[in-house]
Amino acid sequence: MSDVMDRHSSSERRACVPADLHSSVFQYKKQGQCDDALRKRLRELSNERRRFGYRRLGIPLAREGFEVNQKKLFRLYRENMGDVPPPRRSFKFISDGSFILLLNAQNHGKNETGPANQAS
């Protein structure tokens, strides 16, 4: 648009008329949104709390001072989910058909037996 204004030595308003463009659209300056800190903290929380969804992860983010609405949080969470592996459960199967559920040591510190072992 500035080329048209320079070539024809016309005003901004007159240069916008042939393009069917309002002058406020031409004057609009995009606001820079720096979400790097939010993305980094969301990724850290997602790795720590793999079972939490985006709404539950929004609570600690709000406590830390990040002001983000649910739509933006969902978009960032969805973009981030490629980096976060899903929670894994480990089973050890025994020859009689029962199993032992192996839990992460950081969460529980011990093994629990599955429902097939508890019935006996």
TrEMBL record:
PANTHER family per UniProt: BLR2054 PROTEIN, LOW CALCIUM RESPONSE LOCUS PROTEIN T
InterPro entries in the cross-refs: HTH-like_dom
The protein, known as: IS3 family transposase
Organism: Ruegeria spongiae
Domain HTH-like per the UniProt entry, residue ranges: 34-80
